[in-house]
């Protein structure tokens, strides 16, 4: 009988506010995880072929698709368009859809009058550090939970999974006090503290690493390779696709995180983009164009990253929702 | 044993980090929620007193807590069915044999999921603008409105729900899509031979096959929606007249604006209790499902 991932958990889950769930997996699910990516591609390819069979008219379906697509993408296009308008242009009725005379003025003003460049670098630095640290820690732990026998392993893993039910917010206030004791309030290290390792990440790596053949590792052991060497030269290469997935998750989660940086950082200098943007939007309520430029600056990196790595991201999302 | 030691070496960094920065705080939270930890205790721990269940009892007597709980439940009750329905609709459309540009639409539908919540909340605040917002303009075209979306206590939460659906539907769509693709074609074939139309096929083949996934996705979405915070923080600041103050928003205000940390932790534990109950329901139902 299959058990299931107990609960979504913002801190561990991808940066959406919706957690993970389980697609119906076949009996081959364990082994299949290893080939999850190619399976995904296959499905994509299969469904990408419009069938010629006469099943009626595709018009309503395609029209609905375009409508829903418009709903999904319109706010983002509108943001881009307004960010290129003259200051004050968007506050008209009927609302203009396209800039009359496109200008980069808002971006210039944004970077000149606010510390946007600073916030951007803060976010970039923190997200990069969080990505490297959490990916490294999660991969090591996930691999060990899958492939190295040690006493209490399975029980420990079960406890870790059970902890997924606990919402991160419960830990936040004591964590803040702990950081205060450690002198980490208002420091980059303080921001990073909750993302050093994540249960979700460990779980994801473990599921993927289960498919590495034991014989391969055993053979290396007989040849006298150290466990560390085996990890580096056999496990890591096999886990590379999952590493990319994990790193993407970590970067996006860190980039978009809001509540914790809001709590732990006081200095304006150190703020991350989401916190800074929330503050700016309170000060500049009427400046449509300026705020949209700020939103573009915040969203561009994550959207580009997603477009570049979406295959890894989506396959990881599905793999993460299967539980062995 | 050498291999044991190596294994512990691999898991230790992650376990130490999780233990110190997650499990220890959780344990501390339970203790904290039984104290009157406030700004005086923050300055000097000698001011800390154990108050037993006082925080919880105060909470139950505070109208704003019930209001926040009610608001959060309103968000969940409106948001979850709407989100799931949109996700399912999107998944069915993309899975249709007649659909074109599936890859493109999958990307487009998913894009809002990866966006930064605060940034898109700022966008939607302007889309909901009473005077110049696109939404009221569109409504005006069909003779409705204008609605003071974020300024009217009746409309603020529904507006946030619409925003949340937009932001999140792509996530469950991906999972439901995988579920749909796992339904064997033969089932549809058999239904067609039996003379089932498209609607009948959906009711008698798709829905039953998708049932477990749908249920799971619903419960997980519920749990996520109970943690509502950044949306009201950016779009309405919990207003108007506290109509969008959620549980976590209340925790944030109590904890980090009034520094009633003991009290705020009790608020967080109430949320935990709700999510825990949800998980139990989920486990029970999914167990029943897999026994069938």
What can you see in these coordinates?
The complex is a heterodimer of chains A (324) and B (292). Chain A has 324 residues and is mainly α. Chain A has a domain at 114-320: MetI-like fold, CATH 1.10.3720. Chain A is built from 14 helices and no strands. Chain B has one domain (33-291): MetI-like fold, CATH 1.10.3720. Chain B is built from 13 helices and no strands. The longest helix of chain B has 33 residues, at 63-95. The interface between A and B is large, with 122 and 117 residues.
Compose a concise summary of this entry.
The complex is a heterodimer of chains A (324) and B (292). Chain A has 324 residues and is an all-alpha fold.
Question: N-to-C SSE series of chain B?
Answer: HHHHHHHHHHHHH
Radius of gyration of chain A, taken over Cα atoms and rounded to an integer in Å: 23 Å
Described by the principal axes of the CA atoms, the overall outline of chain B is globular
Mean pLDDT of chain A: 82
Q: Percent helix among the residues of chain B?
A: over 70%
- Span between termini of chain B: 45 Å
The CATH topology of chain B: MetI-like fold
What's the CATH superfamily of the domain at 114-320 in chain A, by name? MetI-like
Radius of gyration of chain B: 24 Å
- Spell the H/E element sequence of chain A: HHHHHHHHHHHHHH
Number of helices of chain A: 14
Protein chains sharing the most extensive interface: A-B, 122 and 117 residues
Shape of chain A: globular
Tell me what the CATH architecture of chain B is.
Answer: Orthogonal Bundle
In round numbers, the mean pLDDT of chain B is 91
Low-confidence stretches of chain A: 1-54
Helical region count of chain B? 13
Protein structure class of chain A:
mainly alpha
CATH fold node name of the domain at 114-320 in chain A: MetI-like fold
């Amino acid at each position: 009988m299959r058990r299931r991932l107990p609960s979504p958990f913002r801190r561990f889950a991808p940066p959406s506010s919706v957690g993970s769930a389980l697609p119906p997996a076949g009996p081959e699910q364990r082994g299949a995880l290893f080939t999850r990516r190619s399976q995904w591609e296959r499905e994509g390819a299969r469904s990408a072929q419009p069938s010629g069979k006469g099943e009626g008219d595709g018009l309503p379906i395609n029209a609905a698709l375009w409508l829903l697509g418009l709903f999904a993408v319109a706010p983002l296009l509108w943001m881009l368009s307004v960010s290129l308008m003259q200051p004050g242009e968007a506050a008209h009725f009927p609302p203009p859809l396209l800039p009359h005379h496109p200008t980069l003025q808002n971006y210039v003003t944004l970077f000149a009058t606010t510390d946007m460049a600073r916030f951007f670098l803060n976010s970039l630095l923190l997200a990069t550090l969080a990505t490297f640290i959490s990916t490294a820690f999660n991969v090591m732990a996930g691999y060990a939970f899958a492939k190295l026998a040690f006493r209490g392993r399975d029980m420990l893993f079960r406890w870790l999974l059970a902890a997924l039910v606990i919402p991160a917010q419960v830990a936040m206030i004591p964590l803040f006090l702990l950081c205060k004791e450690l002198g980490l309030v208002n420091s980059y290290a303080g921001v990073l503290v909750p993302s050093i390792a994540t249960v979700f990440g460990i779980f994801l790596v473990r599921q993927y690493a289960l498919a590495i053949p034991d014989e391969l590792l055993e053979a290396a052991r007989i040849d006298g390779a150290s466990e560390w060497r085996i990890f580096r030269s056999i496990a890591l290469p096999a886990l590379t696709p999952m590493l990319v997935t994990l790193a993407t998750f970590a970067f996006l989660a860190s980039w978009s995180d809001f509540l914790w940086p809001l709590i732990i950082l006081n200095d304006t200098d150190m703020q991350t983009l989401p916190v800074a943007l929330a503050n700016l939007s309170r000060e500049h309520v009427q400046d449509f164009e300026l705020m949209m430029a700020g939103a573009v600056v915040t969203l561009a990196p994550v959207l580009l990253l997603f477009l570049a790595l979406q295959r890894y991201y989506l396959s990881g999302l599905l793999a993460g929702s299967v539980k062995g | 044993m050498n291999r044991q030691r190596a294994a512990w070496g691999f898991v230790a960094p992650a376990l130490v980090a999780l233990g110190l920065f997650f499990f220890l705080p959780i344990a501390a939270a339970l203790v904290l929620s039984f104290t009157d930890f406030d700004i005086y205790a923050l300055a000097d721990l000698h001011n800390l007193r154990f108050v037993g269940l006082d925080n919880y009892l105060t909470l139950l007597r505070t109208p704003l807590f019930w209001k926040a709980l009610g608001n959060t439940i309103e968000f969940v009750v409106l948001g979850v069915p709407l989100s799931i329905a949109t996700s399912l609709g999107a998944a069915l459309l993309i899975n249709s044999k007649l659909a074109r540009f599936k890859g493109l639409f999958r990307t487009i539908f998913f894009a809002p999921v990866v966006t930064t919540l605060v940034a898109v909340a700022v966008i939607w605040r302007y889309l909901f603008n009473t005077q110049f917002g696109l939404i009221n303009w569109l409504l005006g075209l069909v003779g409705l409105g204008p609605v003071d979306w974020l300024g009217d206590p009746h409309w603020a939460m529904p507006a946030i729900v619409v925003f949340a659906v937009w932001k999140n539907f792509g996530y469950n769509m991906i999972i439901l899509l995988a579920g749909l693709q796992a339904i064997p074609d033969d089932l549809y074939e058999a239904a067609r031979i039996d003379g089932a139309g498209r609607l009948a096929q959906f009711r008698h083949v798709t829905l039953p096959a998708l049932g477990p996934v749908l249920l799971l996705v619903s419960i997980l979405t519920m749990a996520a929606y109970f943690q509502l915070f950044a949306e009201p923080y950016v779009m309405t600041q919990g207003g108007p007249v506290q109509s969008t103050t959620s549980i976590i928003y209340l925790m944030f205000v109590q904890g980090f604006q009034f520094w009633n940390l003991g009290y705020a932790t009790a608020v967080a534990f109430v949320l935990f209790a709700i999510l825990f109950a949800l998980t139990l329901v989920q486990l029970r139902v999914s167990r029943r499902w897999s026994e069938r």
